[in-house]
Specification:
83 residues; two-stranded antiparallel ribbon; elongated; 7 strands; single chain; 3-stranded antiparallel β-sheet
Amino acid sequence: ENEEVINYLLSKRDVKLVDTGLDFGKPGFTRFEHKRFHPSVALTRRFYPHVHNMDGFYVAKIQKLSDKRKGVEEEDKNEQTAE
């Protein structure tokens, strides 16, 4: 996983990122080349093999707020109103 996957998840599901509780590692990217990610992606952590003397990792702690999917409920409401 990486910032782009987490950004997609934030845009499609009712979830939020919470602090990982890890005090080492590099913060996740909020922008990369021409892409811009949600500001809360900075709460994620990146671990590089050449910097942290371990395998490379990407860590995100996600809290699920509900089973709702963003965009789907609005479509359902619009269909019900049209009928």
